[in-house]
Amino acid sequence: MVKSILGLTLNGRAREDAVADNMLLIDYIREVCGLTGTKMGCDGGECGACTVLVDDRPRLSCISLAASCDSRRVDTVEGCGQGSRLSRLQKGFHEKLGSQCGYCTPGMIMAAEGLLRRTARPSVADIQQALSGNICRCTGYVKIIEAVSAAAEDAPTEEPPTEQAPSVELAE
Ligand code: FES
Ligand code: FES
Questions:
Q1: Which ligand approaches the C-alpha of residue 103 most closely?
Q2: Could you say which of 1.10.150.120, 3.60.15.10, 3.40.50.300, 1.10.3720.10 is the CATH number of the domain covering 88-153?
Q3: Model confidence pLDDT, tens digit, residues 41-76
Q4: CATH class for domain 3-79?
Q5: 107 SS3 class
Q6: Ligand 1, CB cutoff 6 Å, lining residues
Q7: Which atom of ligand 2 is closest in space to residue 102's alpha carbon?
Q8: Is 97 in the pocket of ligand 2 (CB under 6 A)?
């Protein structure tokens, strides 16, 4: 098995690991880095449960190679919030009852995080578009949309410029 040194910034911290060239990003995150918040759902690019951010753009980690993230920034749900302080999205999901079983929630939060990093005040249509690749078996989506809307309204006073809602990147 061919291994190469993978250097990236994960949740704000630089790290290097020897990683098999064919290792999937989700396996790197969960097994090498021990961050199990990112969930495997369909294992085939269909459900969005495994969504993380790569350079601020949502990426399906179940169909992405870890090696494709060399020299890039990767953010997972563990990077949201600070200690026991919830991020505005985590708070929104909690207060608006956007989670039931919670299995889809990390992917939903990361897809929404990608949206809010680019679009300060997203419309409901923007939120629906950003979460269109994320499947939830429990909630019916209404509460999830409300949770993201509440998080957007909870924005800090200074916001980045509004851009078009990001779409999920597939594998490289
Ligand atoms: S696990 Fe379903 S899209 Fe990745
Ligand atoms: S809360 Fe159960 S799958 Fe979404």
A1: 2
A2: 1.10.150.120
A3: 999 999 999 999 999 999 999 999 999 999 999 999
A4: alpha beta
A5: helix
A6: 40-43, 45-50, 60, 62
A7: 1
A8: no
